Amino acid sequence: MAHALIVGAGIAGDALAVLLDRQGWRVTVAEIAPGLRKGGQTVDLRAGSREVLARMGVLDTVLASLVAQRGLAWIDETGKHLAAMPVEAFDGQGFVSKEEVLRTDLARILHNVGSAGIRYRFNETVESLDDRPDGVSVRFRSGDVDHFDVVVGADGVHSRVRGIRWGEEEQFRNSLGIAHAWYTLDERADTPPLDGWFLMHNAPGGLMVEARPGHAGTQEVGLSFRTTEPLPPRGDRAAQLDLLERTFRDVGWRAAEIVSRAPNAADFALDTYDQIAVPKWHDGRVVLLGDSAWCASPLSGLGTALALLGAEVLAQELADGTEPIGDAFARYEDRMRRPAQEARKLLPGRVGMFVPMTQLGIRVWAVIWKAAQWRVAAPILKWAMAGRGRDSPDV
Ligand SMILES: Cc1cc2nc3c(=O)[nH]c(=O)nc-3n(C[C@H](O)[C@H](O)[C@H](O)COP(=O)(O)OP(=O)(O)OC[C@H]3O[C@@H](n4cnc5c(N)ncnc54)[C@H](O)[C@@H]3O)c2cc1C
């Protein structure tokens, strides 16, 4: 029985684990976090996700976990709506759709559907990957050594597998010049309600504060800012919080309240918005999947769809493990290369529309979002937005 090591129990890694296990593979998953990672905002079911989830047999479970949302509204520093894009806009192809699920829930659903045969090693990662004629010898951080037929790097945008086998991240990274902090906030008596709206407040200087509905009694909040400076190390929470406090000190609406809740957020994360483009995703018996290979950035809105599709395509090509591995990897790359490239092509001016630099820019974008929904302009915007995922591979 062929044995796969999947590094990273995220969306791509867990989906692949489920599919390979069903195809008769022995599957081990190594995840660096102590448990399944929580956190993240909502992901939609467009661009092929719905179909993959249906084929995996989990669509009904996902649909039972949808977050009720009315749409996206841009607000000023007092909370007044400047423009709104309801979920019905552009026939459901707007920025927020009727079918969105928290990333946490999607990850949990994929994880739970896996059989007991999948072996999870939490708090674990890889230290070295050595090719042997019949597989890969892997040394884990714990000191354990094991042997696998294939190793899949599904360990996200800052992939360690990619680092070990392909080299420094910088050569594959295109920074979009934005950093983003996100976490879950438990609603208290004094927390302003969202009434189902995803609220976004832009401030001059390329700053943005957002709050969107989460599970009952919670809000998913985010703080975005333009920067080209390196962020504090991921483990240095004090320096991260200090940076947010300084950056959002003079921003209105709920910025102060939201920043003040960051220290106690269990799922707090701060990262840059990057794109990743690796010229070749496989080397020997090691292959990259998901953000580690092709991250299109959260601004694309396609990270989850591509992760699910990529997992399905890779599983199909690996079949039961009796195929020559290199050929299977090459066919997987052939099928996923184009959708990944297309996803990285952001709408022109996408960064500027997300975090405008000036007050004038903020107001202009609000007018554009209103006007875009008028009868004449709507079909053009609908076409542009529906283009997302047009290049899905046949599965
Ligand atoms: C906690 C979290 C929240 C997110 N929130 C959002 C969001 O709100 N909006 C959005 O657009 N995208 C979000 N993303 C990214 C989104 O999940 C991905 O773009 C997309 O689903 C592609 O999935 P992936 O499996 O390739 O990567 P990811 O979903 O990022 O999964 C990668 C997994 O690998 C693990 N990992 C990382 N390094 C190692 C290592 N060295 N060894 C072992 N395991 C490792 C991570 O802990 C994670 O579980 C989030 C990712 C995470 C991990």
Keywords:
7-stranded mixed β-sheet, 26% strand, alpha/beta, 6-stranded mixed β-sheet, single chain, FAD/NAD(P)-binding domain, 395 residues, binds flavin-adenine dinucleotide
Explain what the structure shows.
There is one protein chain. By secondary structure, the protein is an alpha/beta fold. The chain has a domain at 3-63 and 103-172 and 275-344: 3-Layer(bba) Sandwich (FAD/NAD(P)-binding domain), CATH 3.50.50.60. It contains 14 helices and 18 strands. It has helices at 11-22, 49-56, 59-63, 89-92, 103-113, 160-166, 237-247, 255-261, 291-294, 303-318, 325-344, 350-354, 359-371, 378-386, and strands at 3-7, 26-31, 42-44, 71-75, 81-86, 100-102, 119-122, 126-132, 135-140, 145-148, 150-153, 173-186, 197-203, 207-213, 218-226, 269-276, 282-283, 286-288. Strands 5-4-13-14-15-12-16 form a 7-stranded mixed sheet, sandwiched between helices. The protein is globular.
Low-confidence stretches: none
Would you tell me which CATH topology of the domain at 3-63 and 103-172 and 275-344 applies? Answer: FAD/NAD(P)-binding domain
Q: Could you say which structural class the secondary elements and strand pairing correspond to?
A: alpha/beta
What coarse outline follows from CA principal-axis ratios? globular
The average pLDDT score comes to: 89
Q: Given this structure, which CATH class of the domain at 3-63 and 103-172 and 275-344 is correct?
A: Alpha Beta
What is the tally of helical segments? 14
* Beta-strand percentage range: 25-35%
What is the CA-atom radius of gyration, in angstroms?
21 Å
Could you say which small molecules are bound to this protein? flavin-adenine dinucleotide
Query: Helical amount among residues, as a percent range?
Result: 25-40%
Number of strands: 18
Name given to the CATH homologous superfamily of the domain at 3-63 and 103-172 and 275-344 = FAD/NAD(P)-binding domain
CATH architecture assignment of the domain at 3-63 and 103-172 and 275-344: 3-Layer(bba) Sandwich
Largest sheet: 7 strands, mixed
Query: Could you give the distance between the termini?
Result: 25 Å
Strand order of the largest sheet: 5-4-13-14-15-12-16
